[in-house]
Every structure is written in C-alpha cells, then in structure tokens.
C-alpha cells in the first residue's frame, strides 16, 4: 500500500502494529479495515491540527468498510473472522501455528489492499501522495 502511494515509512508500519487481533487482541474491528482507512488517510487526511481532511476521506472510508463486509468477509470483527479468543493464550498460539488460519488473514489483508488500490485508482491517484 505504501508503495502504491509512493511513500514508504517504517514509522507508519510501526504505528499500525497494535491493531492486530482486532485492536490489541480484543477481537474487535479487523486490522485490515483499519489499515485500509489508514492508507486512505495517508492520501486524504490532514497533516496538521489546523487543516481539514479532504472531503473524500469519510465517504471512501465508509465505502471500504461496507465493501469489506460484502466483498471480502461477512463480518468486520476479527473474532468472528478468525474464530479466536485473543484473550486465551492457547487459542492465540494455535492460531499462530496454523498456516491455514494465518494464511487466510494474509489473503484477507491482500484483498483489502487491492480494494483500496482500486478505489484510489478510481479517484485518480497514481503513486503520488498529497503533501
């Protein structure tokens, strides 16, 4: 996603680390959705408190949320998608040891990134970040 936007930043990757497992392992909103909104925000978000975000940010964020739930998964929640209670260390360990389960998440993240690239392309973005 960062490559698509033309801005690779390890700090941004680090910033997203706590969203795994549905926000810190709570099983809440899938990190792929949060990452998608973060990617949209890299392009359309404000860069300073006194700025306003681009008017397209909220509708695009709502679109990715909606399309995730209809085109990629049936649920937006990590606990439903994975079937894992991330508060249970044994379940987390079993999840991480399962190439099938972790692979499903990786494919879901890839499909969500493809969706965002499609949306940004539709909006006329071609590897040229704002700012």
Helix-strand makeup class: mainly alpha
- Sheet having the most strands: none
Shape: globular
Strand content: under 5%
Radius of gyration: 15 Å
**Count of extended strands:** 0
End-to-end CA span? 17 Å
Tally of discrete structural domains: 1
SS element count, helices: 7
Output the helix-strand order. Answer: HHHHHHH
Average residue-wise pLDDT: 90
Helix content class: 55-70%
Give a verbal description of the structure.
With 131 residues, the chain is mainly alpha-helical. It is built from 7 helices and no strands. It has helices at 2-5, 10-16, 31-44, 57-72, 78-82, 89-97, 99-122. Helix 4 packs across helix 7. 60% of the residues lie in helices and 0% in strands.
List keywords for this structure.
mainly alpha; 7 helices; 0% strand
Question: What's the structural blueprint in terms of helices and strands?
Answer:
Elements: H1 2-5, H2 10-16, H3 31-44, H4 57-72, H5 78-82, H6 89-97, H7 99-122
Helix pairs in contact: 3-4, 3-7, 4-7
In short:
This protein has seven helices and no strands. By secondary structure, the protein is mainly α. The mean pLDDT is 90.
